[in-house]
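subagent[fold] <- orchestrator: predict structure for attached chain, return tokens only, no commentary.
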Amino acid sequence: MNFKHHGVGQDGYFRAVEAETEARRMTYLWLDKTKIIIDHTTVSPDFKGRNIGMQLLMEGVRFARENNLTIIPQCPFAKSVFEKQVEIQDVL
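subagent[fold] -> orchestrator:
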């Protein structure tokens, strides 16, 4: 599984790709220069149950830490993970 980040102006996304097939995508938008809002995640039915969502969210957390950003999770998936995982709440 390869994880890729794409920044496009005010919007961006992280995607998980396996054999050129997109397994999952997590989109975000910039609130300002120091904050991003994770607003949506999608998963391909063929990849459900493989913990790809968590791996993709961790890519977002790594990106936030490396760039001194704060994440505002509005996506239900991301929000639920942040509520349960104390070790990543430093980017909230």
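orchestrator: received. Logging for downstream: The helical segments are 52-66, 76-84. The mean pLDDT is 95.
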